[in-house]
UniProtKB/TrEMBL annotation:
GO terms for biological process: respiratory electron transport chain. The chain crosses the membrane at residues 29-48, 54-72, 110-130, 150-170. One of its GO terms (cellular component) is plasma membrane. It comes from Ancylobacter mangrovi. This is Cytochrome b/b6 domain-containing protein. Residues 22-183 form the Cytochrome b561 bacterial/Ni-hydrogenase domain. It comes from the Bacteria.
Length: 187
């Protein structure tokens, strides 16, 4: 069964719409864990110090749980529900360019691609961070550079993701940030 989608600017008022559970606790905990971890490791904690490494391992664990949850979790958490085909992504982007993108209860195709890209970058930064602690890679400048580049790419994409969430919140007249706190969206 496909989710209900409504065109941008749909006449349904947020006050009259029924709230439905979209984001389950695992998805929300993963999201906010990654947000907090990125803020800590990019701006607060010193690179390579034990707290920085611990936060990295927490992210690796959260990512592992989220990957499993992507196959066995609730409807909107499953990769099968939101990973778009190239043609579906192209149609969505074309509609977005015209200001006619549909409202989607779960991840829209562009948001799904962003989420997957962020997950790949998170896996890469976790892997390179772990590798830097191995004797085989001790002091390797290329590895440290790659780790830093991946972390900076996460920052750029996270800022783009947050901007897109704010834009979509405005376009569809619903607070997407708050829905990632409560788990609920307008039906």
């Amino acid at each position: 069964m496909r989710e209900r989608i409504a065109p941008a600017g749909d006449a349904t008022s947020p006050a009259t719409g029924t709230a439905v559970r979209v984001w389950d606790p695992v998805v929300r905990l993963f999201h906010w864990t990654v947000v907090a971890a990125c803020i800590l490791n990019l701006f607060i904690l010193d690179d390579g110090d034990p707290p920085h490494r611990i936060v990295g391992y927490v992210v690796a664990g959260a990512l592992a749980v989220r990957l499993v949850w992507g196959f066995i979790g609730t409807r909107y958490a499953r990769f099968s529900d939101f990973v778009p085909t190239p043609s579906r992504l192209a149609r969505y982007l074309a509609a977005l360019a015209k200001g006619r993108e549909p409202r989607v209860l779960g991840h829209n195709p562009a948001g799904a691609v962003m989420m997957l890209a962020l997950m790949v970058l998170l896996a890469g930064v976790c892997l390179t961070g772990w590798m830097m602690g191995l004797d085989a890679f001790w002091g390797e400048d290329w590895l440290e550079g790659l780790h830093e580049t991946l972390a900076n790419a996460i920052l750029v994409l996270a800022l783009l993701h947050a901007s897109a969430a704010l834009f979509e919140s405005w376009r569809h007249r619903e607070n997407l940030v708050w829905s990632m706190v409560t788990g609920r969206k307008r039906a």
